[in-house]
Task: structure prediction
Amino acid sequence: MLIALSHIQRLYRSDEVETTALLDIELGIEAGEFVAIMGPSGCGKSTLLNILGTIDRPTSGSYSFGGQELTELGEAALAAFRRENLGYVFQSFNLIDELTIEENIELALIYRRMPKAERRRRVAHAMDHVGIAHRARHYPSQLSGGQQQRAAIARAIVGEPRLILADEPTGNLDTENGAQVMDILQRLNDEGATIVMVTHSPSHADLAKRRVDMLDGQVVISVRNAI
Amino acid sequence: MFATILQTVLRQVRRHPLYVGLNVFGLALGIGVFLTLTLLVRYEYSFNAALPDVDRLARVDTHWTMPGTPPGEVAGSTFRAMPFLREDFPEIEAGIRFEDTDLQTEREGVFTSFASGLTDPGFFGVFGLKLLHGVPDQALARPDGLVLSERAAIRLFGTTEAMGRTVPINRAGVTVTHTVTGVLARRMTPDFLSDIEMLAPFSSEDVTTRFCFRSWASDCGRIYLKFRRRGDIDAVNARLRDFVIRHAAGAEGDHTAFGVHPEKVYGLSLAKLDEARFRDFHVLYAEDGVDRTVINSIGLMGLLALALACANAVNLATARAGLRAREVAIRKTLGASRRVLFGQFMGEALLVAAIAGVLGLALCEILVPEVASLTGEELVVRYGLVGVVLPLIVLVCGLASGVYPALVLSGYRPAAVLAAARMPSGGRGAARLRDGLVTGQFGIAITIVICMLVINHQTDFMRTADPGYVRDGLLIGSAMPGSDLAAQRRMLDALRAVPGVVTAGFGELAPRPGTKNLGTYSYDGPAGPVNVYLLQDTVGAGYFEVYRPRLLAGRWFDIARGQDDVPSRDDMRTRMANVVVNAGAVSRFGFASPDQAIGKIIRSGGWTTRIIGVIDDVRFESPRQAIYPEIILFDTLAQRPFSEPIPAIRFQGVAEAEMARRLNRAWAGILPDVASDFSSVDARMAAYYSGDERRGRIFTLGAAAALLIACMGLYGLAAFAAARRVHEIGIRKTLGATGRQIVALLLGDFLRPVMVACLLACPVAWVVMRRWLAGFDERIALTPAHFLIAVAGAFAIAILTVLGQTFHLARAEPARALRAE
Ligand SMILES: Nc1ncnc2c1ncn2[C@@H]1O[C@H](COP(=O)(O)OP(=O)(O)O)[C@@H](O)[C@H]1O
Ligand SMILES: [Mg+2]
Result:
């Protein structure tokens, strides 16, 4: 088992209200899986993904990754964990406006100790992989949404992570661009990457190997798709 | 329109108190400091300017070109020249002699000192000062007449209605009753007579007996002349060399003249009074003189403080502009025209500037009395000046801080803004502008801080530098009038008997000397005779133990050796005297070392002396001035009295104030009619340092303001950069950056302009301070420490500012930052 979540709970406290984003999540994910998470807006999908990505901490519960308990790690160790193991794709792309596409992608490697030449090589390779090499020197604002999302995917895969997390990667894209993105994700999964993706599109969910349905902060169904 | 603008500004105050606060208070601080320093500079520039007919007034100065000393201009001249000037130059409309002195009033044995001037009855014909009471032409006509300043009248009588009242004035032990014949009206602008509290006519005895009225070679005051036309001043000035040749020449041995060629050592010139304030800085014994560069630097500092504050406002406004882009885009989509938006933003900037202006004026009102007490000047807020300057500042600051954001914001294409995922930063141009402004701000602040450190170090150094004698535990009295051998002996005995006194001794010179005697001495060296102009002092038994000068070679005087005692005036031609010289004299005469000087014979006129000892240079005068080469004679009081000796005592085991009281009482036992004022070296020399110290304080104030403004700017920018970069930081952290890496990134971005600022500031400060220090004879070396402290301080402050803004940001969970979209 690559990932094991057990009794994961996430509460948000503001002055008066307490929101339970995740109630009690039990979830295991094997290496090489492609999991699609579905559910109505506000049911806790993004929160779950953020916790999987360690950019948010659960209020209680345990999260083990490759046998290592992550909830006990400190800030710096988590940062190191992220840079070695994870790749992210967001609905709103989250590219940095002031950097070129190439620089944005390189950002995922910049926090690792890696020679400049090696970084360049990997960035070029990742851009080829998603087909935006010709836009390397452009700024995000000069690209279409589909191109931006492909750049974001290039950034997610350039570090050759073990787990790719995608939060509604096709949510802001038209059908054609959405299909392209799904194509890339499937290819990555075929090449061995473990992928967890949130989506609202049943057809995109069907392209995954497993489907997890959520409701009010809980996992309700987990089904394996026929291949 | 105005209502809308007011509404927006109020809304911003509520929503962004930090931004509005930084903007308004930064600007107010800059404006307040600028106004205050401008008033101070204006005060300095208006010195003497309000004297009636000042453009036709001049002072007669003396130029000495004596062997062994660099030529120098002295503020003052012999009174001997007065009648000849009137005779030779019909261009002179009026002229008076003036001697600065302290007059003492005496009431039942209690003396009160007043800064005063002795002068001629025609005083008011030259200086048309207004009298509150009395008639100018007659006020000083009576020999017992006395003109009081308003302040002195109030001090003496509690009222300015002092006409006809009597004041007992004590001069050198003799009390003469004067009658108040005039009260000066208070003047608002400063001049060289501002400190004068009493004016009295010279006594006929002064005029007939005192050397400075009779001899070309002696001066005790200044001659002021009023010319018929301004152009006459230069014309007459050009003819003064011939004047000296005509009148100051005399036969060999005539003590009242300069021999056959007076022009070789002596010259006169006219110093225009309206230019005197700054020119006098380079004139000896002109104590009102100030360094124009320093005054201009203070003005510049005010201007820079204002520029810093303006830069801040521009900076914050452009940074804010990015945050408001969305608002603007939406307004535009809803149909606002570019012109309306432009007007709106300019209006906001002007309103903010106006509020800052009012606060700045309030700050100025608070600062001016502070600065006045720091500088000792009578500074007041002048609304005539402020009323013109302030609206101008507000307009300029408002326009400067409004125009860029207004242009940029009103020029945004709404589609681009709304389509962009995040708030725009204003583009690379704005980023460069912001960096440039931060660089400029810190550059200026660091320069000012370095200057402040150096100036304060130098003034501190002057106060504490080794003066060549031990100044702690030393008290110095007033000069004893006359040369009464018995009285001098009794005085010494009386002072030595005071409990707490270790030793007492006489000298004719003391820290901050009054009269000085200088004479030419010559040494027959191997390469021919060497002439050196030496300062002469005569000291008595006990002097060495009191002052404790450092003996470099030979020995000090010995009371047991008859050769050491200075010969009586009759014996001077026949008997050799032993003398001690200072290190300066040794090098002027060209002796290789102090030891080489021992035993050498030096002559003056028909008199022969032998050097028996060499002491290190002793500083009795301003640290700006070079120490004179000096010759010291010894007087045991066996037969020859001192001329107006100054007693000095070394004490132990008693508090200084108590010691001074005891000594004053002992003095009164011998000379009850002469005011006594035993005071410390520091008190006597204070006037030499006070100008530099005051200006040091102004620089400290300016430096603090500049630094504060620069920090406010940086703080604001850091806050905005943090707000603008929340999202970017979230992404970077998601990609594996640690909190420390994020802090380092943000710090790097901010410290780069600060570093450039340091690189620019250091050379500028170095050049400026080297020039300033060159004006001191005794000065500190410019060390890297001054620069390092300022640079380290700037970095520390910048780092703290940025850390304060970014630390929590760098630590936050990235998910929150990404959600904050
Ligand atoms: N930072 C937060 N503060 C308060 N409530 C939050 C926060 N983040 C998410 N929530 C709440 O948690 C619940 C789950 O949110 P989220 O995981 O974003 O839902 P979704 O399934 O649409 O991605 C929602 O009710 C949301 O309002
Ligand atoms: Mg979501």
